[in-house]
User: Fold this.
Amino acid sequence: MFQEVTPLVAYKRLTENKDAMLIDCRTEREWEIIGVPDLSEINKSLVKIELMRQDQSVNPAFVEQITEVAQQDTPLYLICRSGARSAAACQMLLKAGFIDVTNVAEGFEGNSQNKDSPVIIEGWQSHNLPWQK
Assistant:
């Protein structure tokens, strides 16, 4: 079973653990249009590996691409838009033998409070964590 933490907790843990990595599993289009977490203040780089492609197909090389940048015991934090895709990614990594996998609940953008008034109340951006477009 993977852990789930808020973006604030994830950023704190990424800051405290030199080996921890943040993996953004959104699409390339989302990275370009919406932006990405910026880890430069803590001397880290964001790892961008798509789980789902723009056409909604699953990236068949997702786990393989993770193994190219991380060991099975590397602390991995996965983020997507709202936490759903990254939760699925966490499950895939656990099945592949990774042992320290955490979902960033709320994701990068979070979910709006209600559909009529799309006021964002959660997510990496709403917590004023560093990000860039």
In short: The first helix runs from residue 7 to 16. Helices lie at 7-16, 28-34, 62-67, 84-95.
